[in-house]
Amino acid sequence: MRIERLLANGGRLVAVALILIWSLFPIAFVLMSSVKPAKDIFAAPPKFVFEPTIRHYLDLIAKWGVFFDGLLNSLIVTVGATLLAVVASVAAGYIYSRHSGRFLSASAVFLIVVRLIPPIAITLPLFPVVNWLRLNDTHLVLILLYATFFVSLGTLLMRTFIDQVPRELDEAALIDGASRFTILRSIILPIVAPGILAVSVFVVVFAWNEFLFAFVFTATRAKTAPLVISEMIGSIDGVDWGILFAAATVQLLPVLLFVGFMHRYLVAGLSAGATKG
Amino acid sequence: MSAIHANPITERERAANRSQPQPGETPARLAGLRDRVRNALGFFPFLAPVHVLLLSIIVIPAFYVGWLSLNTSSFGQAPVYVGLANYVKVLTDPAFREALINTGIIVVVAVHLELALALGMALLFAGGLPGRRFLLVAVLAPYAISEVTAVAMWRFLFDPDIGPVTMALRALHLPVLEWSYVPSHGLIIIALLTIWLHLPFTFVILFAARLAIPGELYEAAKVDGATTLQSFRRVTLPLLGPAMLIALLFRYIFAFRLFSEVWLMTQGGPARSTEVVAVYLYQEAFRFNAFGTAAATAWIMVLISLLLAAGYVLILRRQGGAHAH
Amino acid sequence: MTKTQKFTMTRRQMLGTTLAGAGMLAGRPAFAAAKTLNILSHKVHQTVLNGPATGDLTENWRKANDADLAWVTFDSNPLQDRLFREASLPKTDFGVGYIIDNRPTADIAKLFTPLDAYQAKAPIEDYSDIAPGLVQAMTVGGKLIGIPVRHATQGLFYNEALLEEKGIKAPATTLEELVDQAKQLTFTAKSGTPVVGLVLASDLAVFPVMFARAYGGDFITSDFKLLPDPEAMEKGLTVLKALFDAGALPRSYATTRNDDQVTWLQQGRAAYTVLPFARNAQLNNKDQSGFPGKIKAVEFPISAGLKGKTPMASVVESWGMVIPNNAGDKDLAWSFLREVASKRVTLGMAINGNGPVRVSTYADKAFAAANPVAAVEAAVLKNARGAFPPFPEAARAQTIFLEEVQLAVLGRKPVKAAVADIATRVRPLLPS
Q1: What's the ipTM?
Q2: Which of C99, C124, C248, C430 is 20 to 30 A away from residue B165, measured at CA?
Q3: B152, B204, B316 member nearest A266 (Cβ)
């Protein structure tokens, strides 16, 4: 019995170690390489002891000012898309939660079916439309695109969260003559805050990292950070891995921290989506 | 997903609605109609943003793609109507079939492997671990990494000549991944990369579902003298079933449209042997500028995605019957 | 921290950032000059217009026209795609675009303004000085649609230090010698770096085409003959395969790209490569290269059997500047084209590493002094021609060609079968 438990514990320890290596080693390697002297980055075997340097970060600032513009663009697009997706999802989720009918169920199925269309399928026809609307290379086009691809999931998640709010609360307010909008804002919203955060996590992570749409629909003014990083990889002067790793670090740290702080809402969101399925 | 599966409240309401309007009670019916119209007008501002976004950004362009797929066109050429010729062309193209097979392999192998890993991890975590919070964040970390960065780091780690992982494997006299040379290795590294990026998502779904299983069930099973394996089979698996199905559906659909990982990692090489359907579409559209065949490929992707989802709904229906939700 | 606290904080933060973001959006600086010319190009086209030795070559033009330049740059393939898409719209913001010589088919050419009338009205300085072959590449159906601006002629680069280390005194002068030396140069250097004899990208038709030409063959000739000498192509691919089998091409051959070639040579991981002569400066750049001053270039060698009988036809790729049909201020665009094509700017760009399109530039002493490979480049250019001519399905033909080449080099298909398949698969794509 004791041996068995010891073995089980040992196995568990090994499993945890493997999980940690699998998840964190590639990320740790990027962070580490970003402060490695250039000549050590490609050293064989890899060096784990070295004199850390901030040289690559200084080079990044000096040579790739456009990267920081990219970060700012990413920030604007991410915040915009998150706000839009959350507002649209909460409003629709509220109606789906509190009312029913043939039209509503049909439109809910529509939400899901639409989401099955692969994004790459619509890049082709969107280009002339976006251009015709003079939206090419603007933040707005990315905000609209990113929000659109999350309003389906967002609406369904928000519906599940709002379902958990007792109906008596809004019925009482309704009797007092409050409008739907007032009920949503002052009664429902504060209670479903965790749901909103859950939806936000999905949109933020997606919008901050997205590549394909940004590649097709932006040129200079709205170019996002992942795009600048991909340019570093294909740079005409050859890849400067040190700078690349520094940029990757700057790009991934904020959202890594964000996910770290928000992991509870992520779990809550997915459990709402999954267990209620 | 939950909309397909009507929730208890709306189910009850619908039943009530159905029993209300009796034939012959005209005034009441009129009032009901008036209510419904007023309701619909009231709903409108709430539902409009979501539907306007979806219609204008996804649905209308998708129909335009449908029209494109019935024509041949390229830069500087006016579209010429060709009926279903583009579909025939794509479906008979050996490159498309290979791309479809590769996509199938990745969907089947990577997604199921990912599900098994996620399940194992979810159970490990649910069993209680020291420092679980930190571990949870660690496991979630790859979710936060952009595909561009992930590919850069994996290309570097697995570089066939100087990559640290390659060198470590060589030093241990283990076989290395020659992903730029052996096609199956190319698929393996793409599968590994996509598992790395999406495992957190699948894991969280299963972990959350596992947490939702009441502890009493396990205690009851223990009292009945069930072994760990038995309680896994009798309690865990059936209760995790729906969550696993959802995770699978999500991942099927997302793995099916896999693009950035392949494009940035191998560009479909060596010799187009790791090309997937989305990469095939990209090549047709943005390299060969053959908009007709690209659009046909897009609609084939849409139809396959819909079929996948329909299969899922069927399974869910059958399950729903058995479980009496 | 409790849940609610965290929520209120985040909401406030979110609001704050949005406001800040909106403010920044609104506060974007307006352009200073009266006019702006938007240009769609590769990054390199922009950088050669400004260098430490020459200063900003566009300054005169900008002051004279009270106009600013706004560059939007992409990698070659996406750049061409974007250019054609912009030119297909009812109206585009871009006044000038850069096009590769193997892209303007009759259909594509329709998207761009014929320049003959502009040339008649406000001619380019000493127009006949521009290499006639390059002008020809920008002439479609008798109409001039682009002004040549850059050529990239392929040369054979080698790392002198590595050759010396293996006791090789002179770089290869025949293809057979090159193969032999590349095999010898596959070794571990004194520095501990593993070296391969030759590094080539696998996603460009340039390299297999040059190997076939070294035996007197070709892929598609300018008059659309497919594989005029299949045996020569077979010989070329057999040589590439032998190099790969010997480890003299890297194991990662099938995923090696153009930029990797530069990195490998700079880091001393490869002894030979084939790149445009214009890359000389970058390969010897003190900040990036481990071997500044040691990387040199010669003409790509022809096979021993043809040496002295026929000249080697290396691959040249050229770029031209075009004005989309749907552009706004075309006169402004033309005045920019004139300025960039002028003798002064052509020389300045050449000093900054651009392949000059004017014959007179090669005679210039300042250029010869600044560029150690100028003489050999001029000689190679005389016999050079494009990898394949433009036609609507050229991109697809290139993809098929490269797929078969990779299969043959990696040993997954016999060379003979691969060449036969190139013939049968590419033939239906050729214009009739």
Answers
A1: 0.86
A2: C248
A3: B204
